[in-house]
Amino acid sequence: MNEKGYGEAELDKSSSNSDAIRGRAQQNVDANGGAQSQGGTSGNKINEISETNPNRAKYMNAAEAEFAASEAEEGAEEVITVIEILNDIPD
C-alpha cells in the first residue's frame, strides 16, 4: 500500500478480544472514508464486516466496550499535556 501513497502501518489499538478487534477494524475503515465497494474512499476495497453479517452488532459493540475507555483516557492525557504547556508560559 505504500506505493499507492499510504504511509507505514501503525498499531492503532491492541486486545486479546477477537470480537473487539474485528469491530475496531471496521471502525477504522469507516473513519477513513468507508469501503470502496460501498462508494467509500479508504484504502479498503471491502468492509471488514459485511452489512449482512449476523454478528456485525456483536463485533461493533465489543469494539466500543473495549476501546472507548482507552480513548477517553488518551483524551484526558492530551488535556493534561496542554494544561502543563500553558502553565509553563510566562505571564
Describe this structure in words.
By secondary structure, the protein is mainly α. The chain has one domain (2-88). It is built from 2 helices and no strands. Helix 1 crosses helix 2. 15% of the residues are buried. The mean pLDDT is 83.
Key descriptive features of the protein:
mainly alpha
Mean pLDDT: 83
Straight-line N-to-C gap: 48 Å
- The SSE order reads HH
Cα radius of gyration in angstroms:
17 Å
- What structural class results from the helix and strand content? mainly alpha
Structurally, the number of domains stands at 1
Quick synopsis:
This protein has helices at 18-31, 56-88.
Topology (elements, then pairings):
Elements: H1 18-31, H2 56-88
